[in-house]
Design goal:
Layout: E1 5-10, E2 15-23, E3 29-38, H1 40-44, H2 51-73, E4 82-88, H3 92-109, E5 113-117, H4 118-130, E6 136-141, E7 146-153, E8 156-162, H5 168-178, H6 185-193, H7 218-234, H8 240-270, E9 278-282, H9 289-301, E10 305-307, H10 311-314, H11 319-330
Parallel strand pairs: 1-4, 4-5, 6-9, 9-10
Antiparallel strand pairs: 1-2, 2-3, 6-7, 7-8
Helix pairs in contact: 2-3, 4-11, 5-6, 5-7, 5-8, 6-8, 7-8, 8-9
Bound molecules: 5'-O-[(R)-(carboxyoxy)(hydroxy)phosphoryl]adenosine and zinc ion.
5'-O-[(R)-(carboxyoxy)(hydroxy)phosphoryl]adenosine binds near residues 187, 283, 284, 285 and 316.
Amino acid sequence: PAPLTLLGLESSCDDTGAAVVRTRADGGGEILSNVVISQDDLHAAFGGVVPEIAARAHAEKIDIAVEQALSRAGLRLDQIDAVAVTAGPGLIGGVLSGVMCARGLAAGAGLPLVGVNHLAGHALTPRLTDGLAFPYLMLLVSGGHCQFLIAHGPDRFTRLGGTIDDAPGEAFDKTARLLGLPQPGGPAVEGAARDGDARRFAFPRPLLNRPGCDMSFSGLKTAVLRARDQLLAAQDGLYPQDVNDLSAGFQAAVADVLTEKTRRALAAYLDLQPPAPTIAVAGGVAANDALRSRLSALAAEHGISFVAPPLALCTDNAAMIAWAGLERLRAGLTDDAAVIARPRWPL
Ligand code: KG4
Ligand code: ZN
């Protein structure tokens, strides 16, 4: 088949992205450009993403992101086969900016428009980067989401379980705030944890003894708060070593829970007797090295492959949206002008 080239747009959270991706002969994808305009600076002072600020920044930046993506790819819009856009789930203002922009581009150039579920974008990333074959086990772990999926096809996922409250990325971000570390909290906490002693604080491993793949992370953040306040009551402030040890203890608890629950999800997945069994991760928290090495050890223990996309493709980006759109298009799953913004949209 002739190669397909898609323009993808992503604006569901706090990154404005546009990317151009083309099919490769071996089935994977080639990223011709992947522009991410971060809003971190705008939200930093508020300690979290402010939806109104995010919406306005997406509206201001999305056209610029598209222009950059096309020019870096060295292509004009009329050399693109279709436009893919995140249609949800996410913050409605941002999703709308993307959908409106994509509709305009597609209508103006007479191109098909493909609505993509942001979670499917994350979950299909290992096929873009590694040409992974279905079915594979996916741990999707980000700032807003945490779930185990068996990916059977571009539009077919079985959910095995997930968080019943906070997502781990959110817990990393809250922990960073409690410890006076910068946002986004994940990389900051991971950095501090590198010099910390994970055994100094005994943090809980919520739901670990409960059967199934469901998880909980909100109690963990409360435990960090309590440990911090105990320190503050006993001394004149938090010392760097305290911050490092609290970070290490917190991160170890998250990694323990995610690894043990992955072990359980693996059992359900292996029951399907997949021809090339693989555990894959995606989402911002999949950038965490401590977690990656635990999961890769678990996979090795079972003699199966472990795939973790490069960091820039784990966090929010438009290449994964272009790719997911491309997979939908190849499978004949187009939605044309009916693409509407859906703030809530389970896979
Ligand atoms: O996938 P993502 O970019 O956005 C969505 O939530 O969809 O994920 C962002 C989250 C943030 O909470 C951030 O703190 C977390 O991923 N994160 C990390 C690391 N890098 C980013 N968490 C732990 N360790 C990291 N190295
Ligand atoms: Zn995401």
